[in-house]
Amino acid sequence: MGKYTSEDHKKARIVQLFQDGQYLYHKGLKAYRERNLSRARKLIQRAIFLEPENTGMLSQLAVIYTEMGYYQQSNELLDFILKNINEKMTECYYFKANNYAHLGLFQEAYKAAETYLKEDPNGEFSAENAELLDLLDMGEDDSGYSEYDQDDLILKQDKAKSLLESGELQESIKILEEIIADYPEFWSAYNNLALAYFYAGDIQKAKTTIYDILEKSHGNLHALCNLLIFYHYERKDEKVRTLSQQLSNIYPMLLEQRYKLGATLSLVGRYDLGFKWLKSLYRMGFEGDETFYYWLACSAYFTGRTQFAQTVWKKMQEEHPSAGRMEPWKERIEKVPVQRPIEERLAAYYLSGRKGEKELLKAVLDSKMAKTSFEDQFVRLVLYGENGTAVTSKDARLAYRTAKAIEEADRSAIEQEAMCFWIFHVIQQIRASGLQLKNAGGLAAAIYFIWKTEHQERLTKAETAKLFRISPGTLSKYERTLKEHL
């Protein structure tokens, strides 16, 4: 009996030891002194998970981020300290100034250094800060960076994000590419660019952009989450499993990162991991949007926490009464064609609309399947028509109008599944190439004419143009365009 008690006591001590944040922190400091930055980061992240308001641990992690070249993550962490834990921890401003200088954001660096001088003129880093201010003063004229440049960057970011959310993908891509050219280490622009490519249907470019981020900013959480979504969208189950497991070992400090990680893991079906991070935000009183509550309820339900899931869902309905979402446990996912490529899904949606299968289309909108804003808005057009829903995506409108024009010209053609699939295959190719086509009638006529002639059907351009109420010249123009890009 005594031996059992002794062994039990030893186990209790071991468990207590490994749950002690200070133990992990000092292990992390040891790794840091040995210049094993990757191990130091992981150990201190785990320590902070146990002691989330320990400013010493948080600031040390910010320093490690800086030394690893993760300047943006470091600044996000420093902002978190100032806003949520200790606004008088003035050295954060000096560290931020250094990070901004590394990113090439010299005006922001100057502002942060000035703030440090104002808040703590005799602080620990006052001498280093004075040198940095002198350097930034000297470099401003030579570098060409001005306050206007920094304001311009912020405006460009906001505009690109707004265009991305509204479905104006090519415009968003153009601005994001400009930002990256001017600020080659501004990783959020890369992540948004990858999403823009993804929504535009160019999955390969999206993944290449993510690989570029990860090569230069190892462990970038948003990039890893976006890559996981892409793998999920492509139904690469083994890669989803491997990357999900990799992400399970990450301990994000920032609220935004926890939200991104929790929602992403829930989306790909790792409800256990997703619930862990989303519930941690919920406990902290995080005021999320409807999407936050959706994934929290979803991950709770599918990990057996039914009552909590229903409580969260009720809270979402109270705070976001216009959301109009269906409870995740009531979704008819089995009827959604999630295993097909997007061209087949678009064709299936359109054919379902012709058959009057409204409930199926509503289930698609409510489901938690991976779908882009383009796909979502296309389904809304099929379900409600152009006058019945507010759609901002030009691509979705063009796709819908093109299919509609072919249906009006030759109803029997749209009923052929092979041709219907080909219509949307062409549209995806157009989106991926960045072509800005506006005349749905001309595009529809060219798609129809090429299909018919390729299948040895006798049809002249004059007959086709008349069928679609356009000129033969317009038909020829669109035919040439398609053949150049198909």
TrEMBL record:
InterPro entries: CellSynth/LPSAsmb/PSIAsmb, TPR-like_helical_dom_sf, TPR_rpt. Keywords: Repeat, TPR repeat. Gene3D superfamilies: Tetratricopeptide repeat domain. PANTHER family: LIPOPOLYSACCHARIDE ASSEMBLY PROTEIN B (PTHR45586:SF1), TPR REPEAT-CONTAINING PROTEIN PA4667 (PTHR45586). This is Tetratricopeptide repeat protein.
